[in-house]
User: Which sequence fits this backbone?
Protein backbone atom coordinates (compact mmCIF):
# COMPACT_ATOMS: atom_id res chain seq x y z
CA UNK A 1 0.00 0.00 0.00
CA UNK A 2 2.93 2.33 0.76
CA UNK A 3 4.29 1.71 -2.76
CA UNK A 4 0.88 2.40 -4.23
CA UNK A 5 0.46 5.63 -2.24
CA UNK A 6 3.96 6.80 -3.25
CA UNK A 7 3.11 6.39 -6.93
CA UNK A 8 -0.61 7.15 -7.11
CA UNK A 9 -1.37 8.82 -3.76
CA UNK A 10 -4.90 10.27 -3.61
CA UNK A 11 -5.50 9.71 -7.31
CA UNK A 12 -6.94 6.22 -7.33
CA UNK A 13 -8.52 3.50 -5.22
CA UNK A 14 -6.66 0.20 -5.39
CA UNK A 15 -8.05 -3.31 -5.10
CA UNK A 16 -5.73 -5.73 -3.35
CA UNK A 17 -6.18 -9.47 -4.02
CA UNK A 18 -4.94 -11.99 -1.44
CA UNK A 19 -4.61 -15.76 -1.45
CA UNK A 20 -7.18 -17.39 0.79
CA UNK A 21 -4.66 -18.52 3.41
CA UNK A 22 -5.68 -18.89 7.09
CA UNK A 23 -3.05 -16.30 8.08
CA UNK A 24 -4.74 -13.75 5.80
CA UNK A 25 -8.05 -14.36 7.59
CA UNK A 26 -6.61 -13.59 11.01
CA UNK A 27 -8.69 -11.07 12.91
CA UNK A 28 -7.47 -8.05 14.82
CA UNK A 29 -6.97 -8.54 18.55
CA UNK A 30 -10.01 -6.35 19.33
CA UNK A 31 -12.23 -8.05 16.73
CA UNK A 32 -15.68 -9.40 17.58
CA UNK A 33 -15.60 -13.11 18.32
CA UNK A 34 -18.16 -15.21 20.18
CA UNK A 35 -15.56 -17.87 21.08
CA UNK A 36 -14.63 -18.47 24.73
CA UNK A 37 -16.81 -15.61 25.91
CA UNK A 38 -18.22 -15.92 29.46
CA UNK A 39 -21.99 -15.88 29.90
CA UNK A 40 -21.99 -13.92 33.13
CA UNK A 41 -20.75 -10.45 33.99
CA UNK A 42 -17.16 -10.44 35.18
CA UNK A 43 -13.72 -8.88 34.75
CA UNK A 44 -12.65 -10.36 31.43
CA UNK A 45 -10.61 -9.51 28.38
CA UNK A 46 -9.46 -11.52 25.41
CA UNK A 47 -6.41 -13.75 25.94
CA UNK A 48 -3.99 -11.00 24.96
CA UNK A 49 -5.58 -8.61 27.43
CA UNK A 50 -7.25 -6.62 24.67
CA UNK A 51 -10.84 -5.40 24.85
CA UNK A 52 -13.25 -6.14 22.04
CA UNK A 53 -14.38 -3.11 20.08
CA UNK A 54 -18.05 -2.12 20.20
CA UNK A 55 -20.67 -4.20 18.46
CA UNK A 56 -23.92 -3.02 16.96
CA UNK A 57 -27.47 -3.38 18.32
CA UNK A 58 -30.32 -4.48 16.00
CA UNK A 59 -31.33 -0.78 15.74
CA UNK A 60 -27.81 0.01 14.48
CA UNK A 61 -26.83 1.83 17.67
CA UNK A 62 -23.34 0.96 18.96
CA UNK A 63 -23.23 -1.64 21.74
CA UNK A 64 -20.38 -1.64 24.20
CA UNK A 65 -19.60 -5.05 25.68
CA UNK A 66 -18.30 -3.49 28.88
CA UNK A 67 -20.17 -1.65 31.60
CA UNK A 68 -19.16 1.99 32.03
CA UNK A 69 -16.50 2.94 34.54
CA UNK A 70 -19.09 4.65 36.75
CA UNK A 71 -21.54 1.72 36.80
CA UNK A 72 -22.80 1.26 40.41
CA UNK A 73 -21.91 -2.43 40.77
CA UNK A 74 -20.22 -3.71 37.62
CA UNK A 75 -17.76 -0.92 37.03
CA UNK A 76 -15.89 -1.55 33.83
CA UNK A 77 -16.77 -5.28 33.86
CA UNK A 78 -17.35 -7.31 30.74
CA UNK A 79 -21.13 -7.64 30.36
CA UNK A 80 -21.12 -11.33 29.44
CA UNK A 81 -23.15 -13.08 26.74
CA UNK A 82 -26.37 -13.04 28.74
CA UNK A 83 -26.52 -9.25 29.11
CA UNK A 84 -25.19 -8.67 25.58
CA UNK A 85 -27.94 -10.84 24.07
CA UNK A 86 -30.64 -9.40 26.35
CA UNK A 87 -29.68 -5.91 25.18
CA UNK A 88 -30.22 -7.22 21.64
CA UNK A 89 -33.78 -8.22 22.60
CA UNK A 90 -33.38 -11.94 23.39
CA UNK A 91 -35.50 -12.86 26.41
CA UNK A 92 -34.82 -16.53 27.18
CA UNK A 93 -31.03 -16.40 27.41
CA UNK A 94 -30.82 -17.12 31.15
CA UNK A 95 -31.87 -20.76 30.63
CA UNK A 96 -29.54 -21.41 27.68
CA UNK A 97 -26.15 -23.15 27.97
CA UNK A 98 -23.00 -21.18 27.14
CA UNK A 99 -22.35 -23.43 24.14
CA UNK A 100 -23.29 -26.88 22.85
CA UNK A 101 -20.66 -29.34 24.03
CA UNK A 102 -16.99 -28.58 24.61
CA UNK A 103 -16.34 -28.26 20.87
CA UNK A 104 -19.22 -25.84 20.13
CA UNK A 105 -20.94 -28.52 18.01
CA UNK A 106 -24.54 -27.31 17.73
CA UNK A 107 -26.92 -29.86 16.16
CA UNK A 108 -29.15 -27.26 14.55
CA UNK A 109 -26.94 -25.02 12.43
CA UNK A 110 -29.65 -22.82 10.94
CA UNK A 111 -28.95 -19.11 11.53
CA UNK A 112 -32.04 -18.68 13.70
CA UNK A 113 -31.40 -21.67 15.97
CA UNK A 114 -31.30 -20.77 19.66
CA UNK A 115 -29.63 -23.80 21.21
CA UNK A 116 -26.92 -21.89 23.09
CA UNK A 117 -25.65 -18.35 23.76
CA UNK A 118 -22.57 -18.81 21.62
CA UNK A 119 -24.54 -19.81 18.51
CA UNK A 120 -26.99 -16.91 18.82
CA UNK A 121 -24.17 -14.40 19.25
CA UNK A 122 -22.14 -15.98 16.45
CA UNK A 123 -25.08 -15.30 14.10
CA UNK A 124 -25.64 -11.66 15.04
CA UNK A 125 -25.11 -9.26 12.14
CA UNK A 126 -22.14 -7.45 13.72
CA UNK A 127 -20.36 -10.73 14.49
CA UNK A 128 -21.05 -12.12 11.00
CA UNK A 129 -19.75 -8.96 9.39
CA UNK A 130 -16.46 -8.93 11.31
CA UNK A 131 -13.68 -8.65 8.72
CA UNK A 132 -10.10 -9.90 8.87
CA UNK A 133 -7.34 -7.58 10.13
CA UNK A 134 -5.93 -7.46 6.61
CA UNK A 135 -9.19 -6.24 5.06
CA UNK A 136 -9.70 -3.75 7.91
CA UNK A 137 -6.22 -2.31 7.27
CA UNK A 138 -6.77 -1.99 3.51
CA UNK A 139 -10.22 -0.42 3.96
CA UNK A 140 -8.94 1.99 6.63
CA UNK A 141 -6.56 3.33 3.96
CA UNK A 142 -9.49 3.88 1.57
CA UNK A 143 -8.84 0.87 -0.69
CA UNK A 144 -10.66 -2.41 -1.27
CA UNK A 145 -9.59 -6.01 -0.83
CA UNK A 146 -10.73 -9.43 -1.98
CA UNK A 147 -9.64 -13.04 -1.52
CA UNK A 148 -8.98 -15.51 -4.29
CA UNK A 149 -11.04 -18.73 -4.00
CA UNK A 150 -9.58 -21.25 -1.54
CA UNK A 151 -6.79 -23.42 -2.99
CA UNK A 152 -6.68 -21.35 -6.20
CA UNK A 153 -3.65 -19.18 -5.55
CA UNK A 154 -2.68 -19.78 -9.20
CA UNK A 155 -5.43 -17.29 -10.08
CA UNK A 156 -3.22 -14.64 -8.50
CA UNK A 157 -1.09 -13.14 -11.29
CA UNK A 158 1.78 -12.63 -8.85
CA UNK A 159 2.32 -16.42 -8.98
CA UNK A 160 3.25 -16.11 -12.69
CA UNK A 161 5.82 -13.48 -11.73
CA UNK A 162 7.28 -15.65 -8.96
CA UNK A 163 7.48 -18.51 -11.46
CA UNK A 164 9.23 -16.32 -13.99
CA UNK A 165 11.71 -15.03 -11.39
CA UNK A 166 12.42 -18.59 -10.21
CA UNK A 167 13.19 -19.79 -13.73
CA UNK A 168 15.58 -16.83 -14.12
CA UNK A 169 17.23 -17.76 -10.83
CA UNK A 170 17.58 -21.37 -11.96
CA UNK A 171 19.81 -20.52 -14.93
CA UNK A 172 22.23 -18.38 -12.87
CA UNK A 173 25.49 -19.98 -11.70
CA UNK A 174 25.58 -21.67 -8.28
CA UNK A 175 26.18 -19.34 -5.35
CA UNK A 176 28.86 -19.65 -2.66
CA UNK A 177 27.25 -17.59 0.08
CA UNK A 178 24.18 -15.68 1.17
CA UNK A 179 25.34 -12.35 -0.26
CA UNK A 180 25.65 -13.82 -3.75
CA UNK A 181 22.31 -15.55 -3.29
CA UNK A 182 20.59 -12.28 -2.42
CA UNK A 183 22.22 -10.59 -5.43
CA UNK A 184 20.88 -13.34 -7.70
CA UNK A 185 17.41 -13.10 -6.17
CA UNK A 186 17.27 -9.35 -6.74
CA UNK A 187 18.57 -9.75 -10.27
CA UNK A 188 16.01 -12.46 -11.05
CA UNK A 189 13.13 -10.41 -9.64
CA UNK A 190 14.22 -7.37 -11.66
CA UNK A 191 14.20 -9.44 -14.84
CA UNK A 192 10.43 -9.81 -14.59
CA UNK A 193 9.72 -6.61 -16.47
CA UNK A 194 6.54 -4.58 -16.46
CA UNK A 195 5.43 -5.92 -19.85
CA UNK A 196 5.63 -9.49 -18.55
CA UNK A 197 3.64 -8.47 -15.47
CA UNK A 198 0.93 -6.89 -17.65
CA UNK A 199 0.78 -10.08 -19.73
CA UNK A 200 0.39 -12.16 -16.54
CA UNK A 201 -2.50 -9.97 -15.40
CA UNK A 202 -4.26 -10.25 -18.77
CA UNK A 203 -3.68 -14.01 -18.79
CA UNK A 204 -5.15 -14.38 -15.28
CA UNK A 205 -8.14 -12.20 -16.08
CA UNK A 206 -8.90 -14.35 -19.13
CA UNK A 207 -8.48 -17.51 -17.03
CA UNK A 208 -10.87 -16.14 -14.40
CA UNK A 209 -13.49 -15.35 -17.03
CA UNK A 210 -13.33 -18.92 -18.36
ZN1 LIG B 1 -25.56 -24.49 20.24
Assistant:
Amino acid sequence: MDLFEDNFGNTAIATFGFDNAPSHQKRALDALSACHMPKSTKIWNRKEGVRMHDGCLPNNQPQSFYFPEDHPTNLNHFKGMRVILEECGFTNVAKLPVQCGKAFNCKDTSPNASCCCCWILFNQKDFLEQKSALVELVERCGHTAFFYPKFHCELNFIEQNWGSAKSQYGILPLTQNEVQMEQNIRESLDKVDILKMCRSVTHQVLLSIH
